[in-house]
Structures are given as C-alpha cells and as structure tokens.
Amino acid sequence: MSFIMYKAYLCKTNATMISKTCEYAIRATLFIAQKSLDDARTGIKEIARNIDSPEAFIAKILQELGKAGLVLSAKGPNGGFYIDDRGMNNTLADIILAIDGDKLFTGCGLGLKTCSDKKPCPLHDEFTAIRQQIKNMMQGAKIGDFRNSLALGEKFLRR
Amino acid sequence: MSFIMYKAYLCKTNATMISKTCEYAIRATLFIAQKSLDDARTGIKEIARNIDSPEAFIAKILQELGKAGLVLSAKGPNGGFYIDDRGMNNTLADIILAIDGDKLFTGCGLGLKTCSDKKPCPLHDEFTAIRQQIKNMMQGAKIGDFRNSLALGEKFLRR
DNA sequence: ATAATAAAAGACATAATTATCCTTTATTAT
DNA sequence: ATAATAAAGGATAATTATGTCTTTTATTAT
Question: Quick one: which of B139, B34, B156 has its CA closest to B83?
Fold first, then answer.
C-alpha cells in the first residue's frame, strides 16, 4: 500500500530569512575559516566542492566578500582564499550585512515602507522583538567560533 | 551642503522572512476582515487601493486564499470578498503556510537540505529556537484579533 | 430573458535573482 | 623571461518571482 503526498500549498514564492547567495557566502566563509586553522589557503574548486555550490557563482560571491574585507585572497600558484586572526572575529552579522543588507534586521514584517513605532503595522512589536533576537544571535556568532565544531565533524556545511 | 549616501552592501539578493506575495495576502486578509465586521463585502479594486497592491496581482492571490478557504467570495453584483466568524479564527500562520509553505517555520538557516538534529549546520540550534518562536507568534495571531486596532486607526496596512 | 457586475481561470510579460562563461590581471615556479 | 596558476572583472544566460491582460463563469437586478 502506498500514498502519494501532495503539498497543501502554492509556494512559488521566495521567502527565506537569508538569500541563497548569502547562504553560500556563509558556508564558504566558514569553510575557509576551517581551512585557515593550519594556514592553508583554499581555492574556488575546493570551496565549491565542500559547500556544494556552483563554482562560478561562489567565485563571484567571494569577490564581494573580499571587497568587504571578510575574506583575504592571493592570486597565482599557491594562491587562494584565507582568513587571518582579525577576520576570525568577524561575525555572521557582518556577512549578512555585506550580502543581503540590513533588511533581515530592520524591515517591516508586512513589507510596509512606512511602518514605524508611530505608524505600526499589525505585527510591528512582535517582529521588532524577533529581529532584535536574530541580530543578537548573528552578532554574537564569530567566524572563528565555528572552526572547532566543523573540524571535529560535529557540524556540517554540505547538503 | 549636501551628502550623497551609498549603501555599504551589495544587496541584489532576496531575503525576506515573508514573500512579497504573502505580504499582500496578509494585508488583504486583514483588510477584508476589517470590512467584514459589519457584513460588508469588498471588491478587488477597493482592496488593492487600501492595501496598496497591484489590482491584478492581488486578484490572483485572493484566488489562492479562496481555494485555501481563508477568504470567502461571491460573484456578481454585490459580490466580493468576505470572512465569516469561522474564518476570523484562522491565523497568520495559516496564510503564510498557504502562500509560502512551511519554509519559514522549518527550513535550515543555511539552506542545507540535510540539516537535522543529527547532522546539524553550525546555526542549527539557534535557528530552531527562533523559528519556533516565529511559529508561535504567527499561530497565536488570529485574523479577527486585528480588526479592532485597524478599525480604530491604531495599526495600518498601507505603505 | 437580458444586461451588468464581479470573481475565476488561463495565458502572457516584466523584473529580479541566481548562475555561467570568457577575458584580464597578478603571482609564482621554472 | 616564460609558462602555469588562480583570482578579479565584465558580459551574458537561465530561472524564478512578480505583475498584467483577456476571456470565461456565476450571480444579481432590471
């Protein structure tokens, strides 16, 4: 006996807290951080393979992360991406801000441009609280914090 | 003296907790609920005007909400959309589920399909907690709850 | 019955995001 | 110096989400 399952909802919409681009950015950064533990540089191919992303796309994203100072890179043989001690203190909030901007931390839950404390949407207070919590969580999450659990195989970056 | 401001981030990404489509859906539903207070039906033009959305687009969305049983509709003269007492007990979670699916409530924060308690991404526990909180908030927010504050002009649906 | 109204349905168009490709520039090893 | 390597940069393509238009169906008032 077998069942066919149907989704009960439409869902051609895009609603993720963090954009796909930014997800790749975070996964790549955490992977580079892990590799940088023993001063090793890692290249685009290796990164793409290990975080399960398209090569060309993560290359583009890494350019942005480089401009934002969140990863370092070196061209040529033995080149690649790496993160120094200073970079290990950057947070997930920094990555999110660099790629997605601040909408995760500040926007109105109903997409109202004029939503504010004075002219609140019906969800204003609830969303304000939740966003603040997310912000705290992301600002508290340093890149370096994840290295050990990743290296030990307690946490994972591939799907 | 004047300044030109530049955004410090890229941001060609999409990262909203709730899709634009779903935002319209919520705003429309709350507006219809408000109108339904005194048994009045409201049409697409009026809805679009009051929630500041494209007419044709909200029409499409209302079809989905109708199929999902979240709003009722009647064709012809004096027709329009309305919500009955039963419908007033539906929650924002129901609308979100009907339009965006359950990704807001369940997805991995880093977009990993295999993320789970057993094979967690580095943000697994934090995201699980936050999503649960959002879910609670949305499941607790009944459509009918918003009617009064909207009618009194304490809360707003237009941008 | 007929005309007018308003939502349902389906096809189509636009815009935004995600993804790819190709050339250029910088660096290293020979 | 030269060839090989690897990231940077720029242009373009594919996909997905958002938005529009036109026809059909159901209902109501005349």
Answer: B34
Distance B76 CA to C1 C1' (A): 17
The reply to whether the CB atom of residue A57 sits less than 7 A from any atom in nucleic acid chain C is yes
Cβ–Cβ gap B115/A159 under 8 Å: yes
Crossing angle (nearest 10°) for helices B20-36 and B55-67: 80
CA distance A43 to A75: 10
In order, the DSSP letters of A95-153 are: HHHHHHTTHHHH--TT--TT--SSS--TTHHHHHHHHHHHHHHHHH-BGGGGHHHHHTT
Confidence at B16, pLDDT banded by 50, 70, 90: confident
Rounded to a whole number of angstroms, the distance from the CA of B127 to the nearest CA of chain A is 9
The whole-number pLDDT of residue B65 equals 98
Specify the pLDDT at position B5: 45
* ipTM associated with this complex: 0.87
Query: Contacts of residue A68 in chain B, CB cutoff 8 Å?
Result: 9
pLDDT of residue A127: 87
Please, what are the domains in chain A?
20-100+143-151 (1.10.10.10)
Give which of A18, A105, A118 to mutate to test B binding, by max B Cβ within 10 Å: A18
Instruction: Give the model's confidence band at B156: pLDDT under 50 very low, under 70 low, under 90 confident, else very high.
Output: confident
Contact, A102 CB vs strand C, < 7 Å: no
Q: Provide the β-strand partners of residue B6.
A: none
